[in-house]
C-alpha cells in the first residue's frame, strides 16, 4: 500500500479514524483520496464522481470530524438530496456513523410526522437529512430558524440534477437565505460527471471560490454498442412474443446479457418502452422487474428489495434509477436504444461496479442506423470525457415570485433592497435587474400574496402570504396525475400523467403498465382516476405517446453527421460497408455486424446518387407535400429552425404547415403552393438576428405556451384572480396575461428548454456565407426515411391496432359536430356524427353545401353569417366553405374525417382522396392524422 492510499484519512481526527477501522474502511476510495483534504481544510468543494463510489462518506467524514470537535447547539449540518423517496441505505449508513460518533442524525421531509418535527425544533439533531422543498418550509419556522443559525456545513447531493432545474434555482436562493441566518458556511456539492464543472461549482457557492475535485469517469467505463443479428431462435421467439423477429432479437440479446451477469440494470428512455419490454420478459417468465416513476411507491420498493436480495436477475428502469437509489451491487448495465446524451450514459453505466474502484461495464443495444450512429458517437465522447454542460435556468421569474413571500413570512417587514440583494446573491439570479424584480413584486401585490408599500419601499405580509408559502414549497409543476385502478379489485396499478390522459387516453384504449395489458373502462376527471380492466390478448397497442423526449445535443448530432461524411465518400468510391466497418472499429466500440448494419443505410443512400447529408451539408428532399431537411443539428436547433420555417412558410401560403423534428431531420407538411425553392429562400434570406422574434410571434397563441403559462402564473398567485369560476380557456389565459412577468417567464422557459436560437442563427449564417452547403433533390432518400417512422416503437405487436381502430370508429360516431348550411346560413344543428345522414342537406333551402364544424366553433358560424368581415372572419368563412365543399362531394365520410381531433378540411381531403381496400384503412389514416396533430399542436394556431 502506498502512502497516498491512506494519506486522505490522516486529515481526520482520532475518533473518526477509529470509526473508519470499525466500519472496515482500510483504504480510501478515489473520491475520498481527492476530496477529503480540501474538505477538511473547510473549502467550498464540488466532488464529481460516479454513483456508488462512496461520495456520501467523502462529504460527510470531514463534516462529522468537525462536529465531533465542535458540537453544535442547533443543526450543525444539512444534507440536502433531491430524491423524493430518501435513500434508505444512505440513511442507515449515516445513522451508523452518528451513533458511533455520538452525533444525532435525523431525517425531515414531507412524510415526517408532526410529532417528529416538533422534537426536531425543540432539540435539533446535529445532522439533518432533508429535501430542497423541506428546507423552504424550515426557513419560515421561528424555532427552526433559531436552530438553523448554527449550521456550519451544507451538503448538496446530486447537484448536477438540481443545477439544471427550477428546483435548483429555488434552492440556490434558499442557500443565500440560510447564509443570511447562519453566516459563512461550508458548501459541499456531490455531482455526477458534467461538462462544465466550474459553472456547477459557481451554482453551488453563489459565485464564491470553489475547489473542484473530479474523478475521470470516462477512462473507467467500458461500453460496447451492439445491434443483434436475427437468428433462427428469434424467428421462433417472434411467434411467442407476437412481434417481429427483429424485435425478438433485441429481447433475446438482453436476455443473454442478463444471463451472463449476476445483477443487471436495463435502462430505457421512456416508461412506454419499459412497459413494452417488461411485457415481453413477463411472457418469457424471466425474473426481471420493472421500475419507473408511474408505478406506486409500494411497487417500486418491492422490486428494489427483490433485486437487492437476488430474487430478480435484472431491473428494467427509466431515469428513476439514475439517482442514488440503493439496489445493492450492480455488475453490468444495459442501455436499450441510444441514451441520447453523454452525461446520461455515464450516469447509467456508472451504476455498475465502483464498489472497489473497478471498471463500470455496459452494453448499448441499438435498433436502427440513426440509433447506432448516435450511440457510437456518445460512447466515444463518454470515453474521452466530452460531456454536455448543465443547463442552468438563468433568472426564472416564477422562482423569484416563489421566494419573495417566503422572505416576508420568515422575516416580517422587509426592505425591498434587502430581498433583492439576497436573491441576486444566488448564481442563477446574479443578472436579475431591479426593475424586473419590482415588476414581479407588483404582480404579487396585485394578487394579494404580499403587500408592497412603495412609499416606504417595504414588503409586508398579507392574509394570503402564509397560505401561499405552504402551498408552494415546490417548483415541480402542479400537473395532475391520474391514478390507475383495476376496476375489478379496486387496487391501484400505477399512475398516468395528465398530458397522456388528455391527449391519448379514451375508453376502450389499450395500454401497458407494470408489464401487463389494460383496457380503459372509464376516466373520472373529477377524481383524477382511470379505471381499467386487465386483458389477456397481448395484441393491444402500445401507447404512441412518449412524454418529453430526451433531447439529443448539437455536438452528438454533429458527430453523426461527421460519421456520414467519413463513410459516404468511401462508399461512393466503391468501398463496401464491410471494409468501412473495419476502419470505424478502430475508433468506435462496436462489433463488425453492428457497424455494417448501420452503414447499409448509407450504402443504400449512395446508390440513389443523391448527395450525402453531413455536418457540412443539408440535403432537402421532397415528395408530394412532404419536405424533409436532413440536418444533423440536434433536437433543439432543429426544433428552432423547424418552427421558424413552419411560421414563415405558413404566412407566405396562408395555410398551416405541419412540423415534426428529430435530431437529424426537419419534416414539413406543406400546402401544394409551397415550392422547395420557397424553403430554400427562407433559409437564405431570413435575417439570423430575427429568429427569436419570429418564434415568439409564432408562440403567442399556441397551446404549448398556454400550458406553461398556467403553471408559471400559479406560482405568482395569478390564476385565481383571472380564472373566476370554471376552467380558463387557453385564448383567454394568453390574452389576460400578455405583457406580464408571467408571460415573459413562460416565453423564457420555452426558449430555455425546447429551443436553441443561438445555434439556429449560426446555421443560417453558415448557409448564407456558403460554409454550409444546401442541396435539393426530388423523392425520398434512405437517410431521409430513417427518422421517426422507422424508429416508431419497435416493441408494438404486429397487427396490434384492430381494437384501437374499433375504438376510434366508436368514439368519432359518438362525437358531436355542428352542421351549418353555408347557402342560406339559417340552418344550424349540433348532433352526434353517428346520426348524420349519408348525404346531409339543409331542411330550410335543400342545399347540400353543409359545413361540418367542431362543436365549440360558434365563432365560425358567426363569421359565416356576418356581413362585414375582418381578415380573421374571412379566414374562418373560407374554412367553413372548404368544409362544405368536401361534405357536398363526399357526404358523411367527410363529416367523419372532420370530426377527428385536429383534422381540418385540408387534412380531411388528404384522408378521403387516398385509395383504400377497406374502411379500417380510412380510420387508420384518421388516427395517424390525430397523432400528428397531438405531436405538433404547439405549432398550430
UniProtKB/TrEMBL annotation:
GO molecular function terms attached to this record: ATP binding; ATP hydrolysis activity; catalytic activity, acting on DNA; DNA binding; helicase activity
Gene3D superfamilies, per database record: P-loop containing nucleotide triphosphate hydrolases
Chain ranges of the Helicase ATP-binding domain: 36-212
Helicase C-terminal domain ranges (all copies): 253-398
GO biological process: DNA repair
UniProt similarity note: Belongs to the Lhr helicase family. Lhr-Core subfamily.
Protein name per the record: Helicase
